[in-house]
Amino acid sequence: MNIKPIKTEEDYKLALARVSELMDAEMNTPQGDELDILATLIESYEAKHYVIAAPDPIEAIKFRMEQMGLEHQDLEPFIGNLNIVTEVMDRQRELSLAMIRRLHNGLQIPLESLINEYVLGN
């Protein structure tokens, strides 16, 4: 096992290729340990070099609604009456701090997504 830090894109590609070779390795074997270490190194490299921005709040809400099979009226406990829900979802009204808290706690939408700025009126 010859493992080194992933510092360059070439190192990253080599690590990915080696992981591909080791995918069927059994745990608690030298190959399984190598796979585990490489996966950790790759994850760290990707976190630094391939940052994925959180979606805007409305897109995050729509995604969660789709996942949970929710309709606009299902958002009333989190946002307010149906008119307010419609205004928020149509980008005519901003989410308030209270709405953000309720959406996060009730639907487990990440705060990072809910607090992002977004353009009204689109």
Notable characteristics:
7 helices; mainly alpha; 60% helix; 122 residues; 434 Repressor (Amino-terminal Domain); single chain
What oligomeric state is this?
single chain
The secondary-structure class comes to mainly alpha
The CATH homologous superfamily of the largest domain corresponds to: lambda repressor-like DNA-binding domains
What percent of residues are in strands?
under 5%
Distance between the amino and carboxyl termini: 54 Å
Helical fraction: 55-70%
Most strands sheet:
none
Task: Provide the number of structural domains.
Answer: 2
CATH architecture of the largest domain: Orthogonal Bundle
CATH topology of the largest domain: 434 Repressor (Amino-terminal Domain)
Unreliable spans: none
What's the number of helices?
A: 7
Overall geometry: elongated
Report the top-level CATH class of the largest domain: Mainly Alpha
Order of helices and strands: HHHHHHH
Number of strands: 0
Q: Average the pLDDT over all residues and give the rounded result.
A: 93
Question: Rg, please?
Answer: 21 Å
